[in-house]
Amino acid sequence: MKIKLNVNSEDYTGDVEPRLLLVDFLRDTLGLTGTHVGCETGSCGSCTVLLDGRPVKSCLMLAAQADGSRIITIEGISKGEGMNRVQKSISESKALQCGFCASGIVIAATWFLERNENPNESDVREALSGNICRCTGYQPIVDAVLNASKEVK
Ligand code: FES
Ligand code: FES
């Protein structure tokens, strides 16, 4: 199938297998391996990307279904600023361990903070409830997102 979409501000037009998952298209066709594949069942959130401005789990979509859309992956989330405030806060506080969950959490938290400038802990936990972290127990991540919320965008 021919698809046309925009990924991290770059246009792509090409043919894909109808059964190709969006996450596999991003990783294997475009080489954007920052989007991780964990469960492939929509549970872990490690494959989260923004599709037309909303977080989606890219293991639950076919690439063909993304035809015509604008996608932002972890490679494009900071809009050319180096690291964005969520990435900086997570990095500075060493909130992660193995980092496998990182890209999904950064995407989800960045999207959330753009809509909630003054969240409390419970808001952050709910916002990240679709993202599993197997290492940290979540508290350092939640603290890092709360700290990021206090920084000027
Ligand atoms: S790999 Fe997509 S939600 Fe786990
Ligand atoms: S830091 Fe290892 S899964 Fe989150």
Structural commentary:
- With 153 residues, this protein is α+β, with helices and mostly antiparallel strands.
- It folds into 2 domains: 2-74, Ubiquitin-like (UB roll), CATH 3.10.20.30; 85-149, [2Fe-2S]-binding domain (DNA polymerase, domain 1, Orthogonal Bundle), CATH 1.10.150.
- 31% of the residues lie in helices and 15% in strands.
- The protein has 5 helices and 5 strands, in the order E-E-H-E-E-E-H-H-H-H.
- It has helices spanning 22-29, 85-92, 102-115, 121-127, 139-149; strands at residues 2-7, 10-15, 48-51, 54-57, 70-72.
- It has a 5-stranded mixed β-sheet, covered by helices on one side.
- A hairpin with a 2-residue loop joins strand 3 (48-51) and strand 4 (54-57).
- It is globular, with a radius of gyration of 15 Å.
- One FE2/S2 (inorganic) cluster binds at residues 96-101, 133-136.
Can you tag this structure with a few keywords?
153 residues; alpha+beta; Ubiquitin-like (UB roll); DNA polymerase, domain 1; 2 domains; five-stranded mixed beta sheet; 5 strands; binds FE2/S2 (inorganic) cluster
